[in-house]
Amino acid sequence: MDASLLSIQPNAPEPLYRQITGQIRRLVAGGQLRAGQALPSVREVAGLHAINPMTVSKAYSQLEAEGLLVRLRGKGMVVADLATPPDLVARWALVDPALDALARHARELELPADALLDRLKTRLKEDLP
């Protein structure tokens, strides 16, 4: 995995380590990261994104405790060999909280559903960081 696949936003309200863990979970669930695939080193991620290495280490440790990552001596962190790949229901479960928040914000701002869906379709087609 290339460290630039992670999109870390220092000014976002979500803590940096949660941004990292959430993105790695989604990359594994979506199949972009496969069992045995190595993750970039803590130093590489921290250096590229100009964040504290302890933040990256905390994210990796949390994912290791969850069983999603495995630490291999001399090789760093790799994606664990999951018994079964995540199914569609598990992948939707990762997206649903963001959809709930989007729907709530759209209702609060009284945005029309059709326009919101059009903008979402456009965003899905874009190559966003």
Automatic annotation (TrEMBL):
UniProt GO molecular function: DNA binding; DNA-binding transcription factor activity
Entries under CDD domains matching the protein: WHTH_GntR (cd07377)
Superkingdom in the source lineage: Bacteria
InterPro entries registered for this protein in UniProt: Tscrpt_reg_HTH_GntR, WH-like_DNA-bd_sf, WH_DNA-bd_sf
Keyword Transcription: yes
Keywords: DNA-binding, Transcription, Transcription regulation
Sequence ranges assigned to domain HTH gntR-type in this UniProt record: 14-82
Pfam families assigned to the protein according to its UniProt record, in alphabetical order: GntR
PANTHER family hit by this protein: GNTR-FAMILY TRANSCRIPTIONAL REGULATOR, HTH-TYPE TRANSCRIPTIONAL REPRESSOR YTRA
Protein name: GntR family transcriptional regulator
